[in-house]
Amino acid sequence: MVAEDPVVARRARIARLVTLGKRVGYLALLIAIVAFFIGVGTSFASWTVTVFVAGLAVACVVLPLPIVFGYGVRAADRAARERGI
Fold this sequence. Notes:
Structural class: mainly alpha
Number of strands: 0
Helix content: over 70%
Shape: rod-shaped
Distance between the termini: 18 Å
Strand content: under 5%
Largest sheet: none
């Protein structure tokens, strides 16, 4: 019986968190964009501005970490493939 490598398991766990973080961040950005265009049509009602700013704030806080960690996971996978591990 072959035991799973703990490094590979940890990398897979981080990759799942990266995927979740990107989904949350890009969803917040999508909500901000939709709120902006609704605001354009309604002369920027106060709730559209609030939703727009909140969506942008969430996207700016959430997205950087998954993007950076995603690059790290891909680089580690590529290095492992090159070494034949």
